[in-house]
Amino acid sequence: MRTWLLRSAALVTAAGAALVAGAVPASSGGGDVTTLHPVLTGAAERPGPGDADGRGAFAAVVRGDTLCYTLVAVRIEPATAAHIHIAPPTDPGPIVIGLATPDPVSHGCITAVPDGQNTTSTLTESELAALLADPGAFYVNVHNASFQPGAIRGQLR
């Protein structure tokens, strides 16, 4: 299992690096790049239980006001949703942003919008600033029919 996780994390991190090279719009401004790359497991789900067999990896690259990501979810029933939430590792928390549902892979780029224009499909400038200031306060999880609260989860780092 550990080998699979290491390979998946390396693959997703490489995909994230490719996003920086080609997909992050020049209009996103700023040269600073931040990467986020948690491994997702059923054991990390809160309040749990998550899918004990499920595994996943997430890689995100933030440059300026744009977050680009790749999400992989395997060994779970078909995913029905994926999100970034805000909460410490011990608790569930509210959705901050919706992500494309992995089948078993998804990817996309999200550009932050001005505060006051938030929905679950957008990311505000203040939410992006909070995520960059304290990534560990956020997590990614993937949901499916059998594990509606979440099948797999990984705290950002």
From TrEMBL:
Superkingdom is Bacteria
What's one Pfam family the UniProt record gives for this protein? CHRD
Q: InterPro entries per the record? A: CHRD
> Where is each CHRD domain found?
34-157
Keywords assigned: Signal
* Signal peptide (UniProt feature, chain positions): 1-23
User: Is the keyword Signal in the record?
Assistant: yes
Q: What is this protein called?
A: CHRD domain-containing protein
Please name the source species.
Answer: Jiangella alba
